[in-house]
Design brief:
- With 294 residues, the chain is an alpha/beta fold.
- 30% of the residues lie in helices and 21% in strands.
- It has 9 helices and 10 strands.
- The strands form 2 sheets. It has a 7-stranded mixed sheet with strand order 1-10-9-4-8-7-6, sandwiched between helices. A 3-stranded antiparallel sheet has the order 3-2-5, with helices on one face.
- Helix 6 packs parallel to helix 7.
């Protein structure tokens, strides 16, 4: 498994393997309101082929309970493929994936996984409130009542006044907020997020990553996040797994030690700049070669 263990980075971004980035001041972590949503997953020598095409070289990675790990890599390196393997939507060619000791298929049956796609895919005939509660209605038989209601989550993301509105009446950013509420309302221990902010303008995208971390931190949800955005990876993650061009493999894992809770002003600090520079260097190093799959 790739688990960097070296000390805090000194601000020099030339070499990032086994370096860590973060503030040195002490900030108390946000309390977890819902400890039952913690989950752990393990990937061991996972590879994937589509016919004669190697999409993923053997990949090994662990994601701890309550951790946010971002898959950062060039277009076509297999990030989405890896996310779909974790979700149980594709089968591995070789290797194993376990979620709390079981298979992805078992985790899906037990409603342990939430999946947030690039598009929020709201149902046009349902209101904002009805879309937010959709997964809860579908999965009533899953058991426990959610720790936070969809109405409370809508209020948290500033959509209380739009509960009875329809998707066509919302901006793209507002629609994606509803998608986030729908995912968090399910209370799944793991959220798999496939570039959910990619279609948004830069200002809205920045707002959405700040909103995501505000929703996630009190719940302690385990997140695997796919992105091309270096700023997103740096702000959201506890660790960033940098991937090479196809066939995708993890070429580096960078620990991010910025304390929790994280505020928007973090992105204006020198340490954030050093981290994004180092991630950019790693991404460039892994971007050589051809790529046809995302």
């Amino acid at each position: 498994m790739l688990r960097p263990t070296a000390a805090h980075d000194n601000g020099v971004a030339a070499t990032i393997r086994r370096q860590r980035f973060g503030h040195t001041d002490s900030v108390a972590a946000a309390p977890l309101r819902s400890p039952r949503v913690a989950a752990r997953l393990e990937l061991t020598e996972v590879s994937k082929r589509f016919g004669d095409l190697d999409a993923l070289a053997p990949v090994s990675l662990s994601v701890d309970q309550g951790e946010v790990v971002t898959l950062l890599g060039p277009s076509g390196c297999g990030k989405t493929t890896l996310l779909r393997l974790i979700a149980g939507l594709e089968t591995v060619t070789a290797g194993t994936i376990t979620i709390d000791g079981g298979t992805p298929a078992e985790a899906r049956r037990r409603k342990r996984i939430g999946f947030v796609p690039q598009s929020p895919a709201l149902l046009p005939w349902r209101t904002v409130g009805q879309n937010a509660r959709l997964l809860l209605e579908i999965n009533r038989r899953a058991g426990n009542a959610p720790s936070t209601s969809a109405d409370d989550l809508l209020a948290e993301v500033g959509l209380s006044d739009f509960t009875d509105a329809y998707p066509h009446e919302l901006s793209g950013g507002m629609q994606q907020r509803v998608g986030l509420v729908r995912a968090f309302a399910l209370d799944a221990p793991i959220l798999l997020m496939d570039e959910p902010f990619a279609a948004l303008d830069e200002m809205t995208r920045e707002e959405m990553r700040h909103l995501l971390i505000r929703l996630r931190e009190p719940l302690g949800t385990t997140v695997v996040f796919v992105t091309h955005s270096i700023a997103e990876a740096a702000f959201l993650s506890d660790r960033v797994a940098v991937m090479s061009a196809r066939p995708g493999r993890i070429i580096d894992v960078v620990d991010v030690l910025f304390p929790h809770p994280r505020a928007a002003r973090l992105e204006d600090t020198d340490e954030f700049f050093h981290l994004t520079t180092a991630l950019r260097d790693a991404l460039r190093a892994g971007s050589t070669g051809s790529a046809d799959l995302g």
